[in-house]
Structures are given as structure tokens and as C-alpha cells.
Amino acid sequence: MKEIIEVLNNHRTYRDFDENYQLPDEDLQQILDASRQAPSWMNGQMYSIIVVKNQKLRQKFVELNPGNPHMLKSSVFLLFVADLKRTQKVAEHYQVDYSIAEGIDPLITAVTDTALALQNAVVATEALGLGSVVVGSIRKDIKKISELLNLPDYVLPVAGVSIGKPTMEMRIKPRLPEKAVVHYDGYQEYDYEEIEAYDQTMEVFAEARETKLWSKKFADYFSNKPNVTIDEFVKEQRLLKE
Questions:
Q1: Would you say 31 and 163 are in contact if contact means Cβ atoms under 8 Å apart?
Q2: Cα torsion at 225, 241, 113, 229 (round to 10°)?
Q3: Closest C-alpha to 232, from 222, 242, 224
Q4: CATH number at residue 16
Q5: Is pLDDT above 60 for 1?
Q6: Can you give the residue ranges of the Nitroreductase domain (predicted)?
Q7: Is 26 domain-assigned?
Q8: Is pLDDT above 70 for 124?
Q9: How many folded domains does the chain comprise?
Q10: pTM for the whole structure
Q11: Strand 76-83, strand 47-52: pairing
Q12: Which domain holds residue 66?
């Protein structure tokens, strides 16, 4: 396997996969093992991983989200869910209150655990010489996805990962200037010029799927009302009170 720092610094997203490539079971197991070894708050491991191999299920995912055909064409699709059902079972066993819906901190904790496990899966995938793409847009149809997978209450889909053998090489995408991201001993203000410089960097990078300046893309995105179905779903799942 490649050196971990090299793998991390060479990360890139792949969306085109060899549909005939079968991911060996031992490789999938290594990815799952690495994912489960991620750090978690108090060793709570407040997540679950749904391994989706069934083609019919994955076809339904693509029908819901046609912009991501790789969910079907990749070797396997992993759905990472924040899982507070396990600790609810523990509370029932000890016959104590389960008060997680009283505030948002338990949900933040579970989502953080989930994200760390997902990142470990991505790193393990790349260390094996394979490619992946993280799919956050599964939350757009969060209720339908949950119904398809029979997810119980206290469980929240966070993101999926398509994994497979890439058919097209991708370039390493430039990141924001360090001054705009890294702060020492407190948050430090920076010039908007840092963002403008990144806009120019991304224009030169010229990724085909990007049709707007980086800054304009997010200005437009956050000028719209957030996906309120998430709010409703979180309450339905008993993760937050009404």
C-alpha cells in the first residue's frame, strides 16, 4: 500500500468506473475494517455502514438521483448513516431515559463519528489503488432512501460512497489558500482577495462540471432555502424534538 501521507495528498474524486470490474471480497473487507477503526467519541461508534450490492436497489437510487449514475456503475455503494439506535437499545436494556432529542449535540456527535468512518473508507479505497466518490446528495431523497433500506428510527443517512476501478484519470483539485482555512491560536480574519484568488485558480483548473465561479456557486446555493425535508426527517426519526 502507498504511504498514507502520499495517499491523502493525492486524493481526487472519480465518477467513471469500469462496470465489469468486480471488487474482490477481501478488498471490500479491508475497506470496511479500516472504516470501523476510525476514531469516535468515547468509542461510541455511533454510525452504521450499509453495503449496497443489489443492482435493483442501486438502480432505484439513480432514478432518484440521475446526476449520479456511478451509484449503479461502480463496484459497490456504501451508505454511511449516523446511528443512535444502538444506544437507544442500550438505554432500554438498562431501563433509563433516552434524552437525545432534547438537544442537537448527540446528533452532531453521531454525524461526526459517521464522517470519520466515511473518510477512513475513502483513504483505504485509494490505498488499494481504487477510486471513489462521496455522494452527499442522497440526503435530497432522504426519506425514500431510508424506506428502501428499511432504516429504523434514530438513524440518519449522512452520505454514500461509490467505489470501483476508475476508467478515467482525474487531476488533483486545488484547495482554498491556506490563509483562508488554517488559523493559529484563534480565528484570524483574512482578505477577501484570498477567495478571489481561489476563484481564479479554479477557473484555470477548468473542471468541465463547474459552470460558475467557486464563490458564485456557493453564494447562489446558500441564497436558497435549505432542504427542509432534512429537518422534518430528523424529527420523524426521533433525533430532535418538534
A1: yes
A2: -30
A3: 242
A4: 3.40.109.10
A5: no
A6: 10-165
A7: yes
A8: yes
A9: 1
A10: 0.94
A11: antiparallel
A12: 4-172
The alpha-helical segments, DSSP class H, found in the chain are: 4-9, 25-36, 55-64, 70-73, 85-94, 105-127, 142-148, 193-205, 214-223, 228-236
The answer to whether residue 80 is domain-embedded is: yes
User: Average pLDDT in the 119-139 region?
Assistant: 96
Distances (CA, A) of 181 to 5, 142, 176, 202, 215: 19, 30, 7, 16, 15
58-110: pLDDT as tens digits: 999 999 999 999 999 999 999 999 999 999 999 999 999 999 999 999 999 99
DSSP state, 23?
A: P
pLDDT above 70 covers a percentage of the chain that reads 99
CA–CA separation, 160 and 118 (whole Å): 8
Residues 6+ apart with CB under 8 A from 102: 241
The pLDDT tens digits for 207-241 are 878 889 999 999 999 999 988 899 999 999 999 99
Q: CA-CA distance, 229 to 224, in Å (whole number)?
A: 14
Scanning the structure block, which residue is given the C-alpha cell 453495503? 51
Sequence letter at residue 72: L
Residue 178 lies in a domain: no
Cα–Cα distance measured from residue 129 to residue 151, given in angstroms and rounded to the nearest whole number: 32
- Enumerate residues 6+ apart whose C-beta is below 8 A from 168: 14, 16
pLDDT for position 2? 60
